[in-house]
Amino acid sequence: MRTLTLTRPDDWHIHLRDGDYLCQTVKDVARQFGRAIVMPNLSPPVSTVADAAAYRGRILDCVPSGDAFEPLMTLYLTPGTTIDDIAAASSADFVAGCKLYPAGATTNSDAGVSAITDLYPIFEAMQKGQLPLLIHGEVTDPTVDIFDREARFIDESLDPIRRQFPELKIVFEHITTREAVDYVRGQSPHLAATITAHHLLYDRTDMLGSGMKPILFCLPILKRDSHQRALIDAATSGDPSFFLGTDSAPHPRSKKENACGCAAGCYTAHAGIELYAEVFDAAGHLDRLEAFASHFGPDFYGMARNQSQITLVEEPWTAPQTLPFGNEQLMPLRGGEVIRWQMMQTPVAPS
Questions:
Q1: Of 280, 277, 313, the residue nearest 1 (C-alpha)
Q2: DSSP summary character for residue 118
Q3: In sequence order, what are the residues at sequence separation of 6 or more whose Cβ sits closer than 8 angstroms to the Cβ of residue 54?
Q4: What is the spatial distance between Cα 242 and Cα 300, in angstroms, rounded to a whole number?
Q5: Rg, C-alpha atoms of the chain
Q6: Would you tell me how many other CB atoms lie within 10 Å of the CB of residue 318?
Q7: Pairwise CA distance, residues 258 & 256, whole Å
């Protein structure tokens, strides 16, 4: 039986939701990750430092006893974001960055921006305050094919932002295309990208090839297998420009299995590191998982790496078909299916 001990990983992109949903998602992420960057797309959005502090308090109240978990907060950039908001965020040690959602791009993005250039004064203040910009990188023009929206965003928005603000740290989140991989690779120490487990595990044929599988519907949408292979190559390459961000996004079962519109998002927090281990093992690069999951993220954000460790063991287990989600049910990715790796439940002290 093979085992793998690695520095405790972090999740550099996750959705935890709020209210009755929050304690389930926090329990799952705190089991395996030391830190997580928490997305601000609540309703209403987390758009000020005061909002972030209050949300952080609710998250910490849900952390199970004995788990050392640190939520890293983000502010939602809106047309009403001010320079003072950025100054306050830059001074708050629990705020890790600001999130750019093009209006209408994904769940709860209606408060986002339609004209990204209108935020250039905000980006200038973020560059000055050394506050990272986290981007959902898709255009929202309805005339652009949904499979092309990420590639178009690179040309129309991301590249102009980088040329205008060369010292601004940018994370191109949950990338899904070969074009994004090629753009990020080797560009600059100020540009990085997160990659999800579900975009590494699946392509659009998995979602659509034998009937629509709502559990695999996410935004950005799964792409063809050539893009999936590019993502696997990037994640397992040892290039520090790419690191772990699950984009775990929970929705009630009633909204995922909905004939009037399937909610976008895959829930992977129940088995995040185990799913990545499957990908790296299948690619023959299990030895590179620690750097991707535990080193490159904190290095980019200028944070210390975690001191504790976890141990994965190659021992198959069956993921639960459903999880409790407030008064409803949540369908986790790979629910009812076998996952080949699992994390040992006893924490490992530093060696």
A1: 313
A2: G
A3: none
A4: 10
A5: 19
A6: 11
A7: 6
In the chain the beta strands, taken as DSSP E runs, fall at: 3-7, 11-14, 35-38, 70-76, 95-100, 133-135, 170-172, 191-195, 242-244, 309-313, 317-318, 323-325, 328-330, 338-339, 342-343
Contacts of 65 (CB under 8 A, 6+ apart): none
Are 335 and 322 a contacting pair, CB within 8 Å? yes
Task: Kindly report the number of other CB atoms within 10 A of residue 272's CB atom.
Answer: 28
How many angstroms separate the CA atoms of 135 and 12, rounded?
12
Collect all residues with Cβ–Cβ distance below 8 Å to 34 and sequence separation of at least 6.
8, 9, 10, 68, 69, 70, 306, 308
pLDDT at 210 over 50: yes
CB atoms within 10 A of CB 166: 11
SS3 content of the chain, % helix, strand, coil (to 5): 40, 20, 45
DSSP symbols for 174-215: T--SHHHHHHHTTS-TTEEEEE-HHHHH--HHHHHBTB--GG
CA–CA separation, 22 and 146 (whole Å): 30
- Would you call 206 a catalytic residue per the annotation? no
Q: Which residues pair with 335 in a beta bridge?
A: none
Distance of alpha carbon 331 from alpha carbon 252, whole angstroms:
8
Whether 275 and 345 have beta carbons less than 8 Å apart is answered as no
Peptide bond into 44 cis (omega under 30): yes
Average pLDDT score over the chain: 95
pLDDT digit string, tens, across residues 164-173: 999 999 999 9
Q: How far is CA 259 from the centre of its chain?
A: 27
Note the pLDDT tens digit of each residue in 336-350. Answer: 999 999 999 754 444
Q: Which of 10, 85, 203, 247 is catalytic?
A: 247
- What does the alpha-carbon distance between residue 77 and residue 121 come to, in Å, rounded to a whole number? 12
Q: How far apart are CA 74 and CA 14, in angstroms?
A: 11
Two structure tokens written together for 313: 């063991």
